[in-house]
């Protein structure tokens, strides 16, 4: 291969367009200077291509390299070796290399870099759409490689390009079965080292703090939080309380999680009781960068790295940075914490020293009215319905004494206001209570029969502890706006004109057209299947799949079998090529050579130009006593070698061959004896 | 057949003394239906050999002495005005014969040389837009002086390729020379008195060639030889497919002359140098390399370098 040859012009077009396509998905993450650099480099290379500009000199390149390196270090250096910084460095390197791309060797480097960039794209997005996009780019890179290696036939450029594309497509199709086999069978090994995750992905979803306005902010997002697939029937919307976090600490305006009291749950005896009503489902969660999961109370997960804490919250040891799949069994009728320890009770009753005096006063009044805790709680809940309270996504701001303002003045709020206020009043009345945040409700996708939980399903509710019952779920929202619970969050927003003007909810309007809605759900079900079967295909699912394929007892032999098969396939390929290159072995020649080669190393060793006849004649000269036999042999060998049809299945030939072989053996013995005598 | 061929060889050997192998090859060349190129210094017996061959084969024989002013018409013939009946009539040139001897072919200009080309390859002559067939069989025996002598136009590769064999006679050995010297008066222009082979014999031999058995082992060997010439750095270019076919044709004919109905490696080795050498051109460094190490020419060097039977040696 001539590496110093000039690049074919067609290959240049390919690589330039590939470069543009590769950079496009990164555009939103790219700093401004890099976008400028991309524009300059691509334009410059284009100008060189059409002959309007020249290659940059050494000085320009040096300055550019220095500037890019400095910019990258300044912008990303502080984070250590982050993925973002590395990708940016890779992109800028590729761009600068374009300006240097002069000979074949350079374009091969750029091609290799293009493959690397392609893989870098997968760090940020693994959706089915970006998969398809990357596949297309891979096709183009292949086509550019092909156009590099194919001699131009000077016919029609367009036809030639199409042919390159076609060949690239064929190559990719040929690679497809291999890819599938490797995907299914290659062991999933967890990474040997971890790198700082992309910083651009910030924490999403419910956070571990709840101040007024936070959940309503979240509830304006139509992003997907997670998808759920139930093994049995899908329970009613009233049961779909996806519990996330329990917030116990209140500082007067913000509820927050108490990290110091979290520990793994000890009493898990209910698990063994199979008579309990249970829901089985699996959740694929979108990345949240947080380390808790969502589930219906009381969850049980048997998966490494996931544990249930004493608040019945599922925790994961590492933040969820990629789509995460977990299978849950929820025991819906199991009472929790029938006995509340003194410390836990204190925590669940703790209130700030002062603030919100009117709420405290109201709680005391009601406490005096109702002696029973549950009746008191019910009275508080029904107060939300009897008094004029409004459920709204856009509550007025309440700076100080937020609970008082909400309860007595504005009387407008979203779920977090109701949950916070109720918990405050319960605590003020001496009932242990806590705020729970998570999601409520879901959209049913009838195509794949699963549920989609959006961010706008974010919800906050209350748990109160009653003697003999344990922690019980109370949802003030269900009293204020029962529609929210029964018909789902989107129904509620649909009724609100203000929400519909929010661009984020354009989707809601789309849902009015049945076919558009069906299309949307179909797309989502496709995405869901992709997540479920492709992205969440990890060690465990792999093992399960292989077990179902070959049986549990044999699965441990699978790696060995695979290695053996690989070796066999390789051996077959090697043997095949060897067989192809091998000369047809002629049995007569083999027999003859065996005899002739037995003289190698002696002065009688055969020389290249000697055929059997000449060799035997030379032997005869050396050993005149065997001349007759040697001559006869030589004649016969020549006859068999050059005259008879060399069909080894021929019985006649086989017999002759055997006879020849014995004759030659006798002859070599004879010669050896003669030589010994003479010496 | 075998005896008749041997008889023919013996008759020639009585005239061309001490050159049994060359005579045999020359005969082999003609029997295989190929043209023969004799290359040697003047006075080595080239013409004698050619005449003797023509004599034993019983062919009509014509001879052209090529000179630098020879014109194509002198070879092929031309239209001549006949004043008696007032029209042109075609007068055949010397090429219209069965065995044409082109003496000192490289003394003529390329234009004249190439006039022989069509005749040699197609067995026909085209003149004045009319194609005339030459008598069957048609052989050309050309002699040429080594091209480094003065006043020669070297034959181009395309033309040398058309000769099946190129032989050089060389000096006779001492015994043969003594014999020659002794009888210098008698031997001058001695002719073969009687032909030993007829036209029909030639056709018969040609048919017999098709039935000579060629084994796979032999083909492997010939392919190795050809591949060697193509891959070795000493050669400017390797043997052409026509060259390969020429080897097979000559070797088959040689086997036939030995009285065998199959070709062996010895036949190939016997004819290889004569068939291949004039088709190959070696680089100068190659020439010095093999002339230093080997007796004989390029051909025998190749034979010495290529395995007859497969496997390492």
Give me the CATH fold name of the largest domain in chain B.
Rossmann fold
Catalogue the unreliable spans of chain B.
Answer: none
Give the C-alpha Rg of chain A: 40 Å
Large-scale geometry of chain A? elongated
Strand content of chain B: 15-25%
Q: What report would you give on this structure?
A:
The complex is a heterodimer of chains A (679) and B (313). With 679 residues, chain A is of the alpha+beta class. Chain A has 4 domains: 9-185, no CATH class; 209-350 and 431-525, no CATH class; 542-581; 587-678, no CATH class. In chain A, the strands form 5 sheets. In chain A, strands 7-10-6-2-15-14 form a 6-stranded antiparallel sheet. A 4-stranded antiparallel sheet of chain A has the order 3-13-16-17. In chain A, strand 16 and strand 17 form a beta hairpin. Chain A is elongated and about 135 Å long. Chain A starts with 8 loop residues before the first helix and ends with a helix. The mean pLDDT of chain A is 81. Chain B is globular, with a radius of gyration of 20 Å. The mean pLDDT of chain B is 82. Chain B has a 5-stranded parallel sheet with strand order 2-5-8-1-9. A two-stranded antiparallel sheet of chain B has the order 3-4. Chain B has a two-stranded antiparallel sheet with strand order 6-7. With 313 residues, chain B is α/β, with parallel strands linked by helices. In chain B, helix 1 runs antiparallel to helix 3 (46-57), helix 11 crosses helix 12 (265-276) and helix 12 (265-276) packs antiparallel against helix 14 (298-305). The relative contact order of chain B is 0.15. The A-B interface holds A 583-584, 586, 588-589, 592-593, 596-597, 600, 605-614, 638-639, 641-646 and B 213-218, 220-221, 260-266, 269, 303-311, 313.
């Amino acid at each position: 291969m001539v590496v110093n040859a000039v690049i074919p012009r067609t290959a240049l077009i390919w690589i330039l367009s590939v470069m543009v396509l590769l950079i496009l998905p990164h555009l939103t993450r790219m700093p401004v200077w890099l976008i400028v650099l991309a524009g300059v480099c691509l334009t410059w290379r284009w100008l060189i291509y059409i002959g309007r500009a020249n290659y940059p000199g050494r000085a320009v390149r040096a300055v550019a390299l220095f500037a890019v390196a400095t910019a990258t270090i300044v912008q990303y250096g502080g984070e250590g070796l982050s993925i973002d910084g590395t990708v940016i460095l890779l992109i800028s390197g590729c761009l600068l290399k374009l300006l240097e791309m002069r000979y074949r060797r350079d374009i091969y480097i750029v091609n290799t870099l293009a493959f690397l960039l392609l893989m870098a794209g997968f760090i940020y997005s693994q959706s089915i759409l970006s998969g398809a996009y990357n596949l297309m780019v891979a096709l183009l890179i292949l086509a550019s490689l092909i156009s590099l290696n194919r001699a131009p036939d000077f016919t029609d450029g367009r036809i030639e390009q199409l042919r390159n594309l076609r060949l690239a497509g064929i190559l990719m199709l040929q690679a497809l079965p291999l890819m599938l086999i490797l995907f299914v069978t290659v062991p999933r090994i967890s990474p040997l080292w971890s790198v700082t995750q992309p910083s651009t992905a910030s924490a999403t979803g419910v956070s571990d703090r709840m101040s007024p306005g936070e959940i309503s902010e979240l509830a304006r997002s139509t992003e997907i939080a997670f998808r759920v697939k139930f093994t049995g029937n899908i329970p009613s919307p009233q049961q779909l309380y996806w519990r996330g976090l329990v917030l116990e600490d209140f500082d007067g305006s913000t509820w927050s999680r108490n990290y110091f009291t979290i520990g793994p749950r000890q009493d898990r005896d209910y698990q063994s009781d199979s008579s309990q009503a249970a829901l089985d489902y699996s959740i694929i969660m979108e990345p949240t960068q947080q380390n808790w999961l969502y589930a219906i109370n009381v969850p049980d997960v048997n998966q490494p790295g996931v544990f249930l804490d004493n608040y019945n919250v599922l925790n994961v040891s590492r933040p969820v940075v990629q789509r995460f799949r977990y299978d849950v069994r929820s025991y819906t009728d199991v009472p929790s914490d029938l006995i509340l320890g003194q410390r836990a009770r204190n925590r669940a009753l703790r209130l700030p020293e002062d603030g919100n005096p009117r709420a405290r006063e109201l709680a005391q009044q009601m406490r005096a009215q109702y002696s029973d805790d549950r009746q008191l709680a019910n009275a508080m809940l029904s107060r939300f319905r009897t008094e004029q309270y409004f459920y709204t996504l856009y509550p007025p701001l309440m700076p100080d004494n937020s609970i008082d303002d909400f309860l007595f003045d504005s009387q407008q709020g979203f779920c977090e206001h109701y949950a916070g206020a109720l918990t405050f009043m319960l605590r003020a009345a001496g009932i242990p209570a806590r705020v729970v945040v998570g999601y409520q409700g879901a959209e049913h996708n009838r195509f794949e029969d699963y549920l989609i939980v959006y961010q706008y399903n974010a919800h906050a509710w209350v748990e109160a502890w009653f003697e003999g019952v344990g922690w019980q779920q109370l949802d003030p929202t269900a009293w204020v706006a029962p529609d929210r619970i029964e018909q789902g969050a989107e129904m509620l927003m649909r009724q609100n004109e203000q929400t519909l003007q929010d661009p984020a909810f354009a989707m809601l309007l789309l849902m009015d057209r049945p076919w558009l809605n069906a299309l949307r759900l179909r797309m989502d079900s496709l995405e869901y299947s992709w997540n479920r079967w492709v992205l969440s295909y990890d060690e465990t699912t792999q093992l399960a799949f292989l077990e179902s394929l070959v049986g549990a007892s044999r699965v441990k032999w699978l790696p060995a079998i695979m290695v053996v098969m690989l070796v066999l396939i390789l051996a077959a390929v090697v043997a095949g090529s060897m067989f192809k290159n091998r000369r047809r072995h002629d049995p007569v020649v083999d027999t003859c050579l065996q005899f002739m080669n037995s003289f190698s190393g002696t002065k009688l060793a055969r020389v290249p130009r000697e055929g059997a006849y000449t060799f035997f004649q030379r032997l005869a000269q050396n050993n005149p006593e065997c001349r007759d036999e040697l001559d006869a042999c030589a004649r016969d060998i020549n006859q068999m070698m050059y005259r008879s049809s060399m069909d080894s299945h021929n019985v006649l030939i086989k017999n002759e061959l055997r006879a020849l072989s014995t004759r030659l053996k006798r002859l070599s013995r004879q010669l050896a004896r003669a030589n010994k005598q003479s010496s | 057949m075998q005896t008749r061929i041997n008889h023919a060889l013996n008759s020639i050997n009585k005239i061309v003394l001490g050159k049994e192998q060359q005579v045999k090859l020359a005969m082999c060349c003609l029997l295989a239906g190929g043209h023969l190129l004799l290359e040697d210094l003047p006075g080595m017996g080239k013409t004698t050999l050619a005449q003797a061959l023509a004599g034993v084969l019983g062919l009509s024989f014509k001879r052209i002495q090529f000179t630098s002013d020879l014109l194509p018409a002198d070879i092929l013939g031309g239209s001549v005005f006949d004043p008696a009946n007032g029209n042109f009539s075609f007068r055949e040139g010397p090429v219209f014969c069965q065995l044409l001897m082109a003496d000192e072919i490289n003394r003529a200009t390329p234009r004249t040389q190439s006039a022989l080309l069509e005749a040699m390859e197609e067995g026909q002559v085209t003149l004045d837009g009319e194609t005339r067939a030459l008598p069957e069989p048609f052989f050309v025996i050309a002699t040429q002086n080594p091209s480094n002598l003065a006043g020669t136009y070297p034959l181009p590769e395309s033309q040398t390729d058309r000769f099946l064999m190129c032989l050089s006679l060389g000096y006779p050995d001492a015994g043969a020379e003594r014999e020659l010297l002794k009888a210098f008066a008698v031997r001058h222009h001695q002719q073969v008195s009687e032909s030993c082979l007829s036209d029909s014999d030639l056709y018969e031999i040609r048919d017999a060639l098709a039935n000579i058995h060629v084994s796979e082992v032999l083909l492997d060997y010939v392919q190795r030889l050809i591949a060697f010439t193509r891959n070795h750095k000493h050669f400017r270019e390797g043997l052409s497919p026509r060259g390969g076919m020429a080897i097979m044709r000559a070797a088959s004919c040689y086997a036939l002359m030995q009285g065998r109905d199959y070709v062996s490696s010895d036949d190939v080795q016997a004819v290889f140098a004569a068939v291949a050498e004039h088709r190959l051109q070696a680089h100068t460094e190659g020439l010095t390399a093999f002339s230093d190490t080997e007796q004989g020419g390029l051909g025998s060097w190749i034979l010495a370098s290529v395995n007859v039977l497969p496997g390492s040696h």
